[in-house]
Amino acid sequence: MARPRYTAEDRTAREKLVAAFWRLLALGPYAKLTVLEVVRAAELNKNTFYYHYSGIDELAEEAVQATLDPKALLAALSSVSIGDAGAPASKTALDANLDRLCLVAGEHSSAALRQLLKDALRGAWCEALGIDDGQLTLEQRIGFEFALGGVLEVMAYRSRVATPFNFAVAAGVLVRNGVVDAVFRTIRPAAATTRAHADSAQHAE
């Protein structure tokens, strides 16, 4: 039997469950998270939970997927790649999303959730740099994976500290130590090759 159309009340219940998931993930490991804890935090009951989700994993995947906003991903990536160490540490509209992304990268998360984040970061970075992920050489792949791993570790560290830092602070450190330049010298040829192939295809039409 098909479920009825969602009402405004149904959508509010989903939002409460997702919000409860993020609050609990900030407090403890995903592996120990239970449906009972989520419904208590959301001030709902188990029947409501199972009306919307089959289990914790489905709730978690929906919550994380909704947080993988391209603007937030690119904000995190561009902060590290541009390296504007002088940027103010003021709050932005993307901060709540970035905080959640950092939770996904952090120690309270799971391997599956971290992989969702890594895949989304890879896609966002490829789009921003004009890279065809399938055309990377081994050398470029190593540089790219190193860069992605570094970004994820910075995000994970940010989720652990008492006062979350502006990503530009981390970027400044990486730029001053030449890490960003070294990685991008490896990756940029791939971007140039992708653009050249695109230009050739356009001329051929």
What does the main sheet amount to? none
What's the number of extended β-strand segments?
A: 0
Low-confidence sequence ranges: 1-6, 83-90, 191-204
**Alpha-beta classification:** mainly alpha
Number of discrete helical segments: 10
What portion of the residues fall into strands of 2 or more residues? under 5%
The helicity comes to over 70%
Distance between the termini: 51 Å
Number of domains: 2
Task: Return the string of H and E elements.
Answer: HHHHHHHHHH
> Quick check: average pLDDT?
78
Global morphology: elongated
- Rg over C-alpha atoms, rounded to the nearest angstrom: 20 Å
Structural description of this entry:
The protein is mostly helical. It has two domains: 8-66, Orthogonal Bundle (Tetracycline Repressor, domain 2), CATH 1.10.357.10; 69-204, no CATH class. The protein is built from ten helices and no strands. It has helices spanning 8-27, 35-42, 46-52, 56-67, 70-82, 95-105, 111-129, 138-160, 167-176, 179-204. The protein starts with 7 loop residues before the first helix and ends with a helix. Mean pLDDT is 78; it is low at 1-6, 83-90 and 191-204.
List the helices and strands and how they pair.
Layout: H1 8-27, H2 35-42, H3 46-52, H4 56-67, H5 70-82, H6 95-105, H7 111-129, H8 138-160, H9 167-176, H10 179-204
Helix pairs in contact: 1-2, 1-4, 5-6, 5-7, 5-9, 6-8, 8-10
Key terms for this structure?
Tetracycline Repressor, domain 2, elongated, mainly alpha, 205 residues, 2 domains, single chain, disordered N terminus
